[in-house]
Write a structure and sequence with these properties.
Elements: H1 9-14, H2 19-40, H3 48-57, H4 69-73, H5 79-87, H6 92-128, H7 133-142, H8 148-166
Helix pairs in contact: 2-3, 2-6
Length: 174
C-alpha cells in the first residue's frame, strides 16, 4: 500500500500507511486484555486503571523490537503477559485457555482491522487505475503455464487462511 517496502507479514504490522489502523486495533486489543484480566482475576478490589498501566508496560507494543504483538499473533506468548496474568492471580488452568483465546482474538483482529482493510484499499486502487475483473482474468490466463507453482502456493495459502481464520488455528502452523 505504501509502495516503499515489500508487502510481507511483518511490514503489514508497521506500514506507515496503515499506522492509524493498527494503532486503533492495538487500543481495542489492550482494552480487551484489561477486561479479560478484570473478569478472571482472583484478587479482590482490582483497580482497572492499574491493570491498564501494567498492560502498557508490557514489552509487546513496540514494533521496532524483536518481540512485538505480531509475534503474539504467531502464537509466541511473551513472559510479560504470563507474569501479568500471574500477578492478578489468574488460575493456571484459566491462564492457558485465556492466553490461547487472546492469540485467537489477535489473529481475528488482524484479519478484520488490517487484512480486510488492506484488501478494500487495494480494490479501490485497482478501480482508480482502471483495472477490472476481466483484465485480471485475462492476465491470469496468459500466464496459465507459468503459474502452476503459484496455483499450488495459492491453494496452500487459502488452506492456511481457512485453518487460521475460520477454524481457529495459529499462525505458527503455517
Amino acid at each position: 500500500m505504501c509502495f516503499k517496502d515489500k508487502e510481507i507479514y511483518s511490514h503489514l504490522w508497521k506500514c506507515e500507511h496503515l499506522e492509524q489502523v493498527y494503532l486503533n486495533m492495538i487500543d481495542k486489543f489492550q482494552q480487551y486484555l484489561q477486561k479479560l484480566i478484570l473478569v478472571n482475576s482472583q484478587m479482590e478490589n482490582v483497580n482497572p486503571d492499574n491493570i491498564f498501566k501494567e498492560i502498557l508496560c508490557c514489552k509487546i507494543w513496540d514494533f521496532n523490537k524483536a518481540y512485538n504483538l505480531s509475534m503474539l499473533a504467531k502464537g509466541f506468548i511473551h513472559v510479560n503477559l504470563v507474569n501479568l496474568f500471574t500477578s492478578y492471580r489468574i488460575l493456571d488452568k484459566d491462564r492457558i485457555r485465556l492466553l490461547d483465546g487472546l492469540v485467537n482474538k489477535l489473529i481475528f483482529d488482524f484479519k478484520i482491522f488490517i487484512w480486510e482493510y488492506r484488501n478494500v484499499k487495494l480494490a479501490d486502487l485497482e478501480h482508480q487505475k482502471g483495472i477490472n475483473a476481466k483484465m485480471k482474468k485475462s492476465a491470469n490466463k496468459s500466464k496459465l503455464v507459468a503459474n502452476k507453482l503459484d496455483k499450488i502456493v495459492s491453494s496452500r495459502w487459502e488452506l492456511w487462511n481457512s485453518l487460521v481464520f475460520d477454524k481457529g488455528g495459529h499462525w505458527s502452523n503455517f
